[in-house]
């Protein structure tokens, strides 16, 4: 279903709900992310932002509601299929593959399942080597872009918190996604690196990539977001441009703790 | 003495094959297999039955590999939908099922009496006094083949995928990887490799019975992987040798300590081996080796070495 007043929606979430025992982490939440845009999702702690990310990413199924990505209903699709379909997410608490090197983290993300097949890996050495070299070139360019190439051969577990966030972003980009979902990409990242991150995201948007970003850093949201959704206590409070939602009295109250 | 050494080396190569298989499953893919002895036994019985039915040794081994790989794949499929601890229980259960079947289905397995008279490979074309040497050669050849296969698999994109699934299966799925399939394949390949060890054991003794397949076989494999360093195929070759030297070397205790009877000695040996392992874990917890990591330079090929820096 398309809204004629909006650009083409890449992601369309309708009436998503999720309970954990007695806690309604998310109730009847709808949102859409337009192709080529940066959409921010903000809200106080416990608002359900990460739960929304987990549902969209396919970590667990919703109690009700639907998710349509790129014209396809993916509500019940396995997480790895969503990723192959062009949607990739990062985690609020960095989840690097610690025993793999930084470079191997990217290689893994960029390599195709057909090459990772055990038989192909063993017997078609030439084809594997060629494919690996192509992926390696992309991995190097991306790591150079975010200044992590000098750490390429370090185990990922040895990176600082901020570097791990950057690693997750670049690793996600290796999948050549259409949509990248970032859960608090700036949390724990040093100010100069946040600057770097903002520029990188803006540049990628200019290249046509779409983003859904959960973030507490309001400067980053103000600078990047084309559209902002505000969540509180599991429900969508309001949506609009950054200027619009920050003028909204309910948003201020939600952040101060007393939801109207 | 030489004959004894040849036998020990033969058994070390067989044990090393089991340890290498466990390394793929547990060391690299994080799938614990407490019932690996069940797969050794399944491989041994399949090889023996096929060989007794007149199949050539190579074909009998191949059949055992196929049967074990299939069984391993099914066990992994059964348990990977459950949480990780269940795999420990399911594999233990598998080992027990194989033991009970081998003990009770006498029509097939000979029960407690076992299967005698398994035809040994090349027995007719080799003079009997040098047969043990030739068989050792075959075992070393099999070990080399298994090592090369697993080492190249470890360093390949498949190996990287397997390590990623071990480190964090949610992240692997988030990056588009089919975690279930990866685990099933890794476990099946490991089980197939284990079958080779079982088959060689059947040929070596030319007689198998359930008493050869006690849980201590699984314990040796775990000791070898821990001592060798999880993930490192090379370290595990060393680990398997070390464990065997400890096990066999402590046999000679009886020559030095005459006051103890055989039973006490057996217990003391186990205590010593346990102590050795604990000391090892304290002073070298990571084991002899480390899992291979591919450097950026090697993956980029010559491009990195040329210094053709391409920044964007
Ligand atoms: N796996 C879970 N099991 C039980 N409760 C959960 C789980 N995940 C989230 N919750 C609960 O759901 C609610 C929403 O949590 P969520 O992590 O989505 O919030 P958030 O908006 O991301 O908060 P923050 O800004 O602190 O990251 C919280 O009350 C949280 O305790
Ligand atoms: Mg959160």
Q: Any overview of this molecule?
A:
The complex is a heterodimer of chains A (260) and B (312). With 260 residues, chain A is α/β, with parallel strands linked by helices. Chain A has two domains: 169 residues, Rossmann fold (3-Layer(aba) Sandwich), CATH 3.40.50.300; 61 residues, no CATH class. Chain A contains eleven helices and ten strands. In chain A, the strands form two sheets. In chain A, strands 6-7-8-3-9-10 form a six-stranded mixed beta sheet, sandwiched between helices. Chain A has a four-stranded antiparallel beta sheet with strand order 2-1-4-5, with helices on one face. In chain A, a hairpin with a 2-residue loop joins β4 and β5. By secondary structure, chain B is mainly α. Chain B has a single domain, classed as ABC transporter involved in vitamin B12 uptake, BtuC (Orthogonal Bundle), CATH 1.10.3470. Chain B is built from 15 helices and two strands. In chain B, strands 1-2 form a two-stranded antiparallel sheet. The C terminus of chain B is likely disordered. Chains A and B meet through α2, α3, α4, α5 and α6 of A and α6, α7, α8, α9 and α14 of B. The complex binds adenosine-5'-triphosphate (ATP) and magnesium ion. Adenosine-5'-triphosphate binds next to β2 and α1 of chain A.
- Structural class assignment of chain B: mainly alpha
* Oligomeric state of the chains in view: heterodimer
User: Would you state the CATH class of chain B?
Assistant: Mainly Alpha
The CATH architecture of chain B would be: Orthogonal Bundle
Number of domains of chain A: 2
Instruction: Please work out how many helical segments of chain B DSSP would assign.
Output: 15
Counting helices, strands and paired strands, the structural category of chain A is alpha/beta
Query: Biggest sheet of chain B: strands side by side, in what order?
Result: 1-2
Mean pLDDT of chain A: 89
Strand content of chain B: under 5%
- Main β-sheet of chain A: number of strands, strand sense, barrel status? 6 strands, mixed
Termini separation of chain A: 32 Å
């Amino acid at each position: 279903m398309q809204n004629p007043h909006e650009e083409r929606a890449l992601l369309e979430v309708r009436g998503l709900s999720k309970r954990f025992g007695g806690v309604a982490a998310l109730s009847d939440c709808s949102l859409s992310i337009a192709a080529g845009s940066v959409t921010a999702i903000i809200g106080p702690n416990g608002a359900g932002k990460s739960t929304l990310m987990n549902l969209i990413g396919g970590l667990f199924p919703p109690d009700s509601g639907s998710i349509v990505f790129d014209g396809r209903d993916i509500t019940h699709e396995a997480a790895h299929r969503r990723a192959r379909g062009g949607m990739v997410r990062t985690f609020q608490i960095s989840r690097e593959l610690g025993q793999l090197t930084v470079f191997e983290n990217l290689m893994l993300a960029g390599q195709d399942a057909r090459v990772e097949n055990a038989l192909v890996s063993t017997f078609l050495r030439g084809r594997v080597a060629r494919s690996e070299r192509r992926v390696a070139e992309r991995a190097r360019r991306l790591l150079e872009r975010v200044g992590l190439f000098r750490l390429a051969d370090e185990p990922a577990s040895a990176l600082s918190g901020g570097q791990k966030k950057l690693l997750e972003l670049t690793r996600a980009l290796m999948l050549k996604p259409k949509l990248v979902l970032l859960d608090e990409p700036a949390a724990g990242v040093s100010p100069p690196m946040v600057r770097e991150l903002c520029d990188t995201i803006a540049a990628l948007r200019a290249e046509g990539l779409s983003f859904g970003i959960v973030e507490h850093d309001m400067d980053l949201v103000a600078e990047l977001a084309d559209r902002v959704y505000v969540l509180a206590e599991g429900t969508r409070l309001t949506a609009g441009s950054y200027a619009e939602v920050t003028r909204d009295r309910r948003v201020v109250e939600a952040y101060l703790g007393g939801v109207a | 003495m030489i004959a004894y050494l040849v036998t020990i080396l033969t058994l070390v190569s067989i044990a090393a094959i089991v340890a290498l298989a466990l390394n793929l499953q547990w060391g690299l893919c994080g799938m614990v297999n407490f019932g690996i002895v069940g797969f050794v036994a399944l491989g041994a019985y399949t090889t023996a039955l096929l060989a007794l039915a007149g199949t050539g040794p190579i074909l009998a081994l191949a059949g055992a590999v196929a049967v074990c790989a299939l069984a391993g794949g099914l066990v992994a499929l059964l348990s990977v939908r459950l949480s990780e601890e269940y795999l420990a229980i399911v594999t233990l259960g598998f080992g027990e099922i194989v033991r009970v079947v081998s003990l009770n289905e006498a029509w097939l397995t000979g029960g407690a009496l076992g299967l005698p008279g398994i035809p040994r490979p090349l027995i007719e074309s080799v003079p009997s006094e040098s047969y043990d040497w030739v068989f050792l050669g075959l075992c070393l050849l099999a070990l080399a083949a298994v090592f090369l296969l697993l080492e190249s698999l470890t360093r390949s994109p498949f190996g990287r995928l397997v390590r990623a699934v071990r480190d964090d299966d949610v992240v692997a799925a988030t990056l588009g990887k089919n975690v279930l399939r990866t685990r099933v394949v890794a476990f099946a390949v490991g089980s197939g490799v284990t079958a080779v060890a079982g088959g060689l054991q059947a040929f070596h003794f030319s007689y198998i019975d359930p008493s050869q397949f006690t849980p201590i076989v699984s314990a040796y494999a775990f000791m070898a992987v821990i001592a060798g360093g999880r993930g490192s195929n090379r370290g595990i070759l060393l680990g398997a040798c070390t464990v065997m030297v400890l096990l066999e070397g402590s046999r000679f205790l009886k020559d030095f300590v005459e006051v103890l009877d055989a039973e006490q000695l057996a217990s003391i040996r186990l205590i010593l081996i346990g102590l050795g392992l604990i000391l090892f874990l304290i002073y070298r917890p990571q084991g002899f080796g480390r899992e291979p990591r591919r450097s950026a330079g090697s993956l980029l090929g010559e491009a990195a070495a040329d210094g053709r820096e391409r920044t964007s």
